[in-house]
Amino acid sequence: MRPHSRLLALLSGLGLLLGGPAVARAQESHVGAITGHAVRGQQLYRRYCVGCHGKAGDGLGENAMWIDPKPRDFTAAVFKCRSTPTGALPTDEDLFNSVTRGFVTTNMPPWRPLTPQNRADVVAYIKTFSARWKTARPVTPITIPPEPAVNIASILHGRELFQRLECWKCHGPAGHGDGPSAHELTDSKENPIRPYNFETGSRFMCGTTNQDLYRIFMTGLDGSPMPSFADQVRPAEAWDLVHFLRTLQTLDTPEAALWKQWLATHAGELKPIGPEGGQQ
Amino acid sequence: MKRSRTLWWGGVAVIATLPLGSAALSAPVPPPAAGTISGKATYTGTPPKMKPIDMAKEPNCVTQHPTPVMTENVVTEPGNTLRWVVVYIAAADTAAPAATETVRYDQKGCQYLPHVAVMRVNQPLDIYNDDPHSHNIHPLARVNPEWNKSQPKGAPPIHATWEQPEFIPVKCNIHPWMHGYFVVLRTPHYSVTGEDGSFSLAGLPPGTYTVTAWHEQFGTQRQDVTVGSGETKTVSFVFTARPY
Question: Which positions ≥6 away from A268 have C-beta within 8 Å?
Fold first, then answer.
């Protein structure tokens, strides 16, 4: 036995003593050039994540009862922020981005204080809580075509979609999260949940960019009431919807500037959004 | 909690009884006449009352129903019969061909039609929106992948299949009163009780079967039944009804 192989044997023996089940130690994550390891992720998870997500990853940590929306249950392997179609597992990068970004309007903070390697390790460990990570076929992310230039026609068409697809039923006619179905929404565990209020600020549930916004309604936020619109919206139309949604924010975006300028002279031409808006 | 336990037992029922059926199905030559298991599902105790559904939030749906639609999670009739009970032979029938005909599931008048749709593993399922407004169809699967899709007015049917047997609650988040079930089974031998609580499982080769009866609120029951050649056996399932 060569010295380094003896060392390896000793280390793996230690791993058996300290680590969890064999599957936990074997799991990896791949984020860019970084490879995350579950055995290291476990140590970090038990220090930083366990309070809310629980030792078993079931979202029933000791803080969970005080938290709303509830911490994610990793044993269900259903995730909101994905680049993959509804019903599919997220990519490692999706999970890494969620850990990095945190979730606006929830108790999940951004975990930038952890190094990228640390975050990749945690992601690898999160994947040990459900067998689906072993059994499910890998699914490719949705493709997002390049964003066309913003113009009034695009925003107006996006507004028509907002009415026709009935986004307002939950998000409200002005995007304030106060539509007629808003107060009865529940997540997949029957816990009450609010639709996103576009007035809240600059962060969406899964990012801040136009691409993130596109991805949110095309993939849906699994486990929440937000469905996927991928079968209903063509890619070009999806960008129109993105441009309109930007005008609902209280931010100085190019979309909002253009919209304000147009509204100053054309506001009277708009049909209302909501039940009285009819089919546009 | 109640739901997940029911699903779990449903899964166990499917797996646990596999060998029984395979033994029963290795029939000798010449093939004997098929048997039938039929009967009724009833309840004892106090079932919850069916309640009228307030659809005021969706005016279209109010006008579609001159009298209010009643909740369907527990549907009882005079004689204590119980509707929407799925009765099936959990054992997989290895000789049975795969199910290829498409199961149709409708969203109409803010209701799921039928309330309980039974299909086999990998059987094509088409989900239609017959209403002049959007629905989102959200099967809350746990064994199979959970997904959630929007289906606006006039959108084509959504095609789906399920790879694993499971009792999947279905809901529409926009209209939270909408509630149904996809029941995914391996076996071709199943029956859903009608208004009179009756079911019939025909075409069974002689043998001993574990017959399972599932109700979304009153749980799962099992009985072992032996059917002879050309015989019809009558079986009753009596569920204990809880008011809440």
Answer: none
Domains with residue ranges and CATH for chain A: 21-135 (1.10.760), 152-277 (1.10.760)
Q: Which residues of B touch A86 (CB under 8 A)?
A: 147-149
Closest-CA distance, A265 to chain B, in angstroms, reads 32
> B103-108 and B125-129: which strand pairing?
parallel
Asked whether the predicted pLDDT for residue A146 surpasses 70, the reply is: yes
- Residue B3 clears pLDDT 60, i.e. is over it: no
pTM for this entry: 0.86
> Residue B11 belongs to a domain with what CATH number?
2.60.40.420
Closest residue of A to B151, CA-based? A232
Q: Is B136 on the interface with A (CB under 8 A)?
A: yes
Asked if A186 and B173 come within 8 Å (Cβ–Cβ), the reply is: yes
Q: How far is Cα B30 from Cα A153, in angstroms, rounded to an integer?
A: 74
Average pLDDT over every residue of A206-228: 97
- Listed in sequence order, the DSSP H helices in chain B are 2-16, 18-25, 59-64
- What is the domain range of residue B209? 2-241
Q: Mind listing the pLDDT tens digit for each residue in B132-143?
A: 999 999 999 999
Total number of domains in chain B? 1
